[in-house]
Amino acid sequence: MTLCYFGFQTLMEKITSTVTMEVYARASRRKFTHLGGIKFDGDVRVLLQLFQTLGVFDTNESLRKDLAVKFEKLKKMAYIVSMEELNDVVESWNEGAILNLTVGDVKKICSMRIDFEKDEVERMCLR
């Protein structure tokens, strides 16, 4: 049995969609320390690199963009939970480094860190 190129592309698209959604959903139910956030950020980067090295995404520009879109929310989650302090999150938000997330999303992700106080997260001023 063989798999044609377009069949392989379709299969890889389905796999990346499933993997990113599942990792995001599972990570959303977890609590992180600063070190755990850094480890999670590294794991997300390795996972993205794994899919990029498979080669199917290098030959097709639209597939490469699709892969980036699928990983975008997961990468932003990893970026936020790996930050050292809440002030770093606020600075990143104000500088535009955390785009396409709502204030509620950012606060929800920040509340995943066990070392960030809940009342401080709620009082964060994201303009």
What does this structure look like?
The chain has about 130 residues and is mostly helical. The protein contains six helices and no strands. Helix 1 runs parallel beside helix 3 and helix 2 packs antiparallel against helix 3 (about 60-80). The chain is elongated, with a radius of gyration of 17 Å. The termini are far apart.
Looking at how many chains there are and whether they match, the oligomeric state comes to: single chain
Largest sheet: none
Q: What sort of overall outline do the alpha carbons produce when their principal axes are compared?
A: elongated
Model regions low in confidence, pLDDT < 50 over at least 5 residues: none
Question: How many H/I helices?
Answer: 6
Determine the N-to-C terminus distance. 56 Å
Name the helix and strand elements from N-terminus to C-terminus, one letter apiece: HHHHHH
Please count the beta strands (DSSP E, at least 2 residues each).
0
State the helicity in percent bands: over 70%
Please state the average pLDDT score: 88
Strand content: under 5%
- Category by helix and strand content: mainly alpha
Radius of gyration: 17 Å
Would you kindly provide a brief summary of this structure?
Helix content is 70%, strand content 0%.
Keywords:
127 residues, mainly alpha, 6 helices
How does the SSE layout of this entry go?
Blueprint: H1 5-28, H2 34-53, H3 61-81, H4 86-95, H5 103-110, H6 118-123
